[in-house]
Amino acid sequence: MTMLKNLTKQYSVIHIAGKEYRVRYSLNALLCLEMTYKPLNEILAVPYREWGMEDVIQLVHAAMCGMPWNRKAVNRRDFEFVRPTVGELGEKIRMEDLPRLRTELLGAILDSMPDKKTEENTASQATDEGHIFAVAVDIIGMDENKFWDSTYKELDNRTEHYLEAKGMKKLPTLIQQYDDD
To answer: What are the DSSP calls for 48-65, one per residue?
Structure first.
C-alpha cells in the first residue's frame, strides 16, 4: 500500500565540513555527472570504499544540482556554475571525511533508484532513457522540468501507477492480515 509520504520528494543527508545537505540524485544530477565527469554506472563499477577523492567530489557536486540556489544553472545545463564548485568542494572535503561521505553518497544513490522487483518485468527494465522520457513526458504529460528533477525511482513508480490506472497492468493484490486473538 502506498503511503502519502511516498508521493513527496525523498531526500538523503550528506555531511560536508560540518554542514548537513539534503540531496537527491535526480536525472539533472546524473546528467551533470555524465557531462562533467563520467556516467554513474562507471563510478559504481568500482566498490564504493575504493572511490577516490575525485569521485567523491564529483558525486557531491552533482548532488548539489538539486539545491534551490542552483536551479538556474542546472536548467541552462551550465553545470560548472553549480555551487559549491568542484574546487570549493575539494577545499572543504577532508581525507578523514571520506569513509562517512562515501557511505552517505552510496545511500543517496541507492535511495534514488527503483526498488528491485523480481517477480515481474517493470517498465524500466525493458526501456532506455528515451523510452522513459517518452512515457513520462509525451504519454503521461509530465512537465519536462519535473521529469529532469525526478529520480529514476520516482519515474518508475509514476510509470507503474499510470499503467495500473489505465488498466494496462494488473493492480497488485492487497493482502490483509488478521489477528486471530
So the answer is: GGG--HHHHHHHHHHHGG
